[in-house]
């Protein structure tokens, strides 16, 4: 393959050769160059330079006699091994040691060489076996060792050899006979290439071919006739193709080892830099290598090595110079380019190692650095397309998705913790958490292909940072049905409490929205999580049906009265636990309660009713100087206001005694009536708080633009006792999980110290547990014979099967 642009058919194989001698005599015009050898026979040494031992006869480089003593053929230089035969004696250095029988056989073979040796047509002589007369059964061992020193070319060998090669090329171009043997010329090219003179040889051969082509072109100017000109062109081209086939057969070793490797690789490198190259030429040349079955050895191996070095350096450089989105697009572009090269001109066997090399050097070596540098930025700015590309590229690399998953968890924990821990975000925390949940869900669905590992990791990460504030009920508020809710360990306890208030007081914005939220909770957490919440809705629906029947019962019984009673029947197991408070109700209310009790127990015998006065509310009709108004108040507010039908002024102590309301609840009630926006009572002295000795009277001058006025109860902040109570209820539910974790660990480990057990339990539980609570659970399991303390070491536990 030379710069003449020849696309010739497959070249013929190089001229056949006899077996190459390992240590041959070189003759030129009767001059013999013989390597002296030493023989060791029965322990005595003697020089034997006259009779060389050779596995083949000498070869003559120049077929015609030459008087120059410097023109000779060296020992074949590409051979780096020596064959040595061992019998009972050892080999020392380059010497050949033989037994007396082997030496005698060699001498006999040498003396009768002319009789015993057969001759080939090319003049090469078949060697005589030196062991042909050896005793049968004698063990022979073949040892191959390297030369101590690498062979060197004789002086002026390069120049003289090129001169012969040049003469042969010119003879081919001029259609004259070649003075030299083709086998010897091929061997000469191989010798030069083996000593790294390929580049110089290629330049010299190229120059000879170019000079010949230029000389051929000049002669075309002498043909004015177009027909003669075309005939001459055709003949010249045919001659050129024939000549180049002959030239290539001589320089085939140079073509395979140097020309292909040093011309195609730079072309591909230039294409990778953005230059346009002749792809069809590369495809044809690489196809030729595949047909010769030398594609992998002559091209692919070095191509992959150079590609590996190229992309390793490029990856290191671009990771420092470019931002992550730009770098990801560059990697994707490189992968597409290499895939296109495989389709266009590379062999299909190169596809897998080539793509793997690009993925390893541009992605695999920079997984952590890429995520540390740009994942947070991509997620903060919601770069959906870049995140999708990131996931696609990381999915191609072994372990890439797992590394991305770890950084994904860390990002959610870090971002969520900034929302939960910051006290300044208490008012907007719930909304921000819900927005954040929507955002990560969208990333999982669109960018991460709904990968279940990322979904589960997101849930665990949310639980981790949410439980950093386990005593804050704000963490568990949820919005309307348009918002996606998330699973939290404390969500159920606090949400159940708030939902009960909304249902009983009628503050829910939409029952349909509440039910939609329940369906999402059920989908996220399971049916067991929402069974009691669903029971609350069923109680409210059944209560409506019961009240319809109660009104019909009242009409049938002709029970007089101007008070309309509405009762909600609550199943105790579904609703939060409420502390009953005994208050002094008016006789009319007491009578209606008894009538309803008789009605309900008549339908459901065996049940027990317990009235919850803290949850009651009423609508009162009041007359002021301005006119009639309707007041929508709680049951406690109702009891206080009804007292002023019996008197003008009452003290705090008198109201407390008459109503039976607990002191703190009474103070909040009076504060809402006398100190709020709708002040239907006067308080003396005037202040924002209710103190002992304060007096209250009816505000006849009360004015308001609305006919029905809702007087809200003053909401006290959740007390420490209430928080502790809620947390204790949560712990009661969690204790079974703690017990199961302890038993599971002890069953597996059999024996464990107290500190190691505590550490194992903390690792398995996903919610915070106080050490004191954990010790209680351990003691409980010991009492129930699940485990026991070691008799010799009280800080060690043993599992009881």
From TrEMBL:
Matches recorded under PROSITE patterns: CULLIN_1 (PS01256), CULLIN_2 (PS50069)
Keywords: Isopeptide bond, Ubl conjugation, Ubl conjugation pathway
Extent of Low complexity compositional bias: 54-76
Pathway field: Protein modification; protein ubiquitination
SMART domains: CULLIN (SM00182), Cullin_Nedd8 (SM00884)
Gene Ontology molecular function terms on file: ubiquitin protein ligase binding
Ranges for region Disordered: 1-77
GO CC terms in record: cullin-RING ubiquitin ligase complex
One Pfam entry name: Cullin
Domain Cullin family profile: 494-674
Gene Ontology biological process terms, A to Z: protein ubiquitination; ubiquitin-dependent protein catabolic process
Family assignment from sequence similarity: Belongs to the cullin family.
PANTHER family noted in UniProt: CULLIN
Protein's UniProt name: Cullin 4B
